[in-house]
Write a structure and sequence with these properties.
The protein is of the alpha+beta class. It is about 40% helix and about 20% strand. Among the domains are: about 30-100, Winged helix-like DNA-binding domain superfamily/Winged helix DNA-binding domain (Arc Repressor Mutant, subunit A), CATH 1.10.10; about 180-250, SH3 type barrels, CATH 2.30.30; about 265-335, SH3 type barrels, CATH 2.30.30.90.
């Protein structure tokens, strides 16, 4: 005979279990459904972005490329494409999926958020460069259009992310990309790095380890089937052909040197009025954030006021305040006289 107390306890336990599973909005089933819907939305948005980036790069997009990029089965990638066709964000063309007008707007919004967040991580945090892309992959789905606009304003309306990719503006306009692949450059020339592809991560990490930085200059010594021999900062190394395809450069004119000849704050004389052009891309993390928080942004006027007894640091006047910067910091800040042209971008 079943003990009535045990039966009552079992019944109450089952009720509690059902309540935990089925309770509206906070039950496990409701949470699982929300998680599934979120996962599906993320996959749909990632598919849109992949189609957009493939078209921008002139690469053929297919079910297999989507499956590989999103790390899902080909069958699921096909279902995602079918869903996007059904909601009229994609149409199928003779050369693969093509974004509709609404699909293009959605893809540009995702790309814009991703690249702005990478810029934020590079300028305002101490997150290593190798982790920018992965963290931005998550945030691109979390920020609303209004939050993205606020982020852009906070960053000073940048045109390029820290890898050299163009950032679409709020109207969806995208600055034209510049540069050619390092593998297309002939021997005996000097070039400036304008883009470092951040995927796959293993190749990007290797480029960073080699010393490649956005805006950095290299001399191409020789080109061959086994790689491209380059030099910079007093050393030489060989870039393998696969990695070279992930580096875009701008060829410089005859007579240009690997060491840039621009003026830095270190060159300014006491009392000389100067204007900030940019901060070197070699300055990242908390150090870059501190300079930005001090008001050292593009267009800001800065004047050397006096030198300490030891010669370092130097006191500078900026926005009515006096700040002290050491020579190592001053060497990272590019300047010009207020009358000079301001056509250059933030440098590397």
């Amino acid at each position: 005979m079943v003990d009535p107390g045990f039966a009552l306890l079992t019944f109450c336990g089952l009720c509690v279990l059902l309540l935990v599973l089925l309770w509206s909005k906070v039950g496990l089933l409701a949470r699982w459904q929300r998680s599934s819907r979120l996962r599906e939305r993320v996959l749909l948005e990632d598919t849109l972005k992949h189609v957009f980036v493939s078209r921008q790069d002139g690469v053929v997009c297919s079910v297999d490329s989507i499956a590989g990029r999103l790390e899902i089965s080909a069958a699921r990638a096909a279902r995602l494409l079918s869903r996007l066709v059904q909601i009229e964000l994609i149409r199928m063309g003779s050369d693969g999926p093509v974004l509709t007008q609404n699909g293009n707007q959605s893809a540009v919004r995702i790309v814009r958020t991703h690249r702005l967040w990478e810029k934020y991580l590079a300028d305002r945090t101490g997150v290593p460069a190798s982790e920018w892309h992965e963290k931005a992959e998550k945030m691109e789905h979390a920020l609303s259009s209004e939050e993205t606009d606020a982020l852009e304003m906070r960053l000073g309306y940048p045109s390029w992310d820290p890898h050299g990719d163009p950032i679409p503006d709020s109207a969806g306009e995208i600055p034209p990309s510049t540069g050619i692949g390092l593998d297309q450059v002939e021997s005996d020339c000097v070039a400036e790095v304008v883009h470092l592809e951040d995927e796959p991560r293993e190749i990007y990490d290797g480029l960073l380890k080699d010393g490649f930085t956005l805006g950095g200059r290299i001399e191409v010594i020789s080109c061959g089937e086994r790689g491209i021999r380059v030099s910079a900062s007093g050393r030489e190394w060989t870039v393998d052909p696969v990695s070279a395809q992930n580096v875009s450069v701008r060829k410089l004119g005859k007579g240009e040197s690997v060491e840039p000849k621009w003026r830095t704050l270190l060159d300014a004389q006491l009392g000389e009025g100067t204007r900030v052009v940019g901060i070197s891309q070699a300055c990242q993390g908390m150090q870059r954030r501190r300079l930005l928080d001090l008001g050292i942004v593009r267009g800001a006027e800065i004047i050397p006021e006096f030198v300490s007894a030891s010669g370092d640091p130097v006191a500078y006047k900026i926005r009515g305040a006096i700040i002290a910067l050491r020579s190592q910091q001053a060497s990272l800040i590019r300047i010009e006289r207020p009358t000079e042209s301001q056509n250059s971008e933030v440098i590397g």
